[in-house]
Every structure is written in C-alpha cells, then in structure tokens.
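Q: I'm writing up a methods section and want to include an example of the input and output format. Could you take the sequence below and give the corresponding predicted structure tokens, formatted cleanly so I can copy it straight into the document?
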Amino acid sequence: MDWDLLGHSWAVENLAHEVASGTTRHAYLLCGQHGMGRRTLALRLAQALNCPTPPSPGDACRRCRTCRQIEQMSFSDLSIIQADQVGGTLRVDQVRELLHSLALMPYEARYRVALLLRFEEAHPSAMNALLKTLEEPPSQAIIVLTAESAESLLPTIASRCEILRLRPMPIMDLSKGLQSREGIPPQTADLYAHLSGGRPGIALRMAKNPELAETRKMWLDFHKHLLTASRHERFSLAEDLLKDREYLPEGLGIWLSLWRDVLLVSLKSNVRVVNLDMENEIARLADRFGQEGAFQNIAILDKTINSLDRNINPRLALEVLMLDLPA
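A: Here is the clean output for your methods example:
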C-alpha cells in the first residue's frame, strides 16, 4: 500500500495501520522541508479516514465523490487553514473559526478533518488557541498540522501530536519513481530528482509545470550575464529583478545551488552536482573562481537571502549583492 505517493512508505504504512485498526490519533504533526509532500500525505490520510468504499482496510479508492472532493480540497468535512502567504502569519481568528466548526458533528463523513498548513507561521496566540482542543479533542475530529520541524512549534503543541518526520527520498529512487509514474525520460527525471534534493513534491511540480524549467534557465542566464556586467549595468539589472520581487528568494536559491556545485567541483568532490545540465558551465566557473571564489559567492548569496527573510529592504539587499558579486 503506497496511497499513490512517491516515497514516505514507512509513514503510509504507519498511518494506514492506525486507520485500519481504529487506533487513529486525534492529532498528527507532519514535519519536513517545503516540497516534501506533507500536504499530500495529509490529504491521503483524510481520504483513508473517510472513503466510503475502501479497496482494503486503511486504504482509499481515490475515485469516489468523497475522495475526489478531498483531493480537490473542497469536501464539506475537510477544513484547511494557513497563512495568507508563505512567510505570513496564521491568525488567531482563523484558528478560532476552525475550532468552532470542529465542535460540530460531521455533515456526511465519519470524521471532520482539519489541516493546519505551515503551522510554524502561526502567531503564538493562534498556537495557544489550538492547545485546549488538542488537550480535549472532539471524538469525531482529526487534526493534522504541517510544519518544517516540531521544534518550530510550542513544545506543548508538538507533545500532543503523533509526529512523523518526513525525509528526502534517495535521488535514484525518486528518479525511477518519476520515470515509472509520470513517464518522464530518464535524463530529465535524473535532473528533476537532483534539483529537488530528493523532495518528491518539488520534483513533481517541475514535472507537471514545464514553465518552471524555463524560469530556472532564465535565472541562470541572467546570472551568467551579471558576472560580466559593469557596475552601472548591474544596478540596472537589479531594477529588473525588483519587478518580480516575489520570486527573488527562489531565483537567488537557483544561483546558490549553482555555486554550491562550483564548490564541489573545485574541491574535486565525488558528490555528483545538482545542476546536471550545467556541468560544462560549472567546470568553467570552477576553473575561473576556484574554491575561494565559490565560497565567497555562496556567502554573498546566503547573506542576501537571509536579508530578504528578515524583511530588509529588497532594493538595498540587491544593491549590496550587485556590489559584492565578483566580476
């Protein structure tokens, strides 16, 4: 039984056993990096709990009306709350409204299921508002939290949940899964598996959205041009980046991934590079900048990304980046 998921077979086996044996916990905490498949696993659990025609105990058919509506996150007994945007704040009034609905009996299913996504973004008052319900849970409700780590939540929240820590898949296993499940050619599947760092959600998103590959290429071409640009031209290019400031962290992450590969090649490491389709360019940069230059660029990009995470003025952060990047 795999619940039609890539990876996390141990988590599926554990949850399916609890559903089949009637030992389901009242609250779960699914931990892991963004793109690990936390939300998908939570939805599969909701399907297994409420499917009216399961093919086997602990499983779901994924074809009935209930399963399809849960998949589309539009089921009457499924509630989903999260911060309005990534990096935002989940408010206490959102949690209170959710708890009011959980106190009601299910409309049509066996359980009401509540998904609280990216719960590390919850305001402390929102976490505290959930605490009483976790201590005295309604018998007909299952609460599923997702977060990057249990340590990012109040200890009193994490201690009242069954914690499942999701880990990246082995790169080759993920590549084979993409080939067999999605029909992706081996070379492309290898690239997606490496770029995702073993995170199946990221790999599947790239497989299903070809425009993401174009966006990545655009950022890499932009960076290549930037390294040979004059200071005046760099500041002009920074203005172009500011027009898409929402995607800045993602784009800078692409650059950071490239320079980590450059460092690996400079160190003559046996670890395979992530950007498989850029091996010639990575070798060229390694010859040109060496270990010291790669270290320097990684530090510069890390500093810029951290500045954006701390809500430092994006224009200022980019201008400093343009000055610091070596020519």
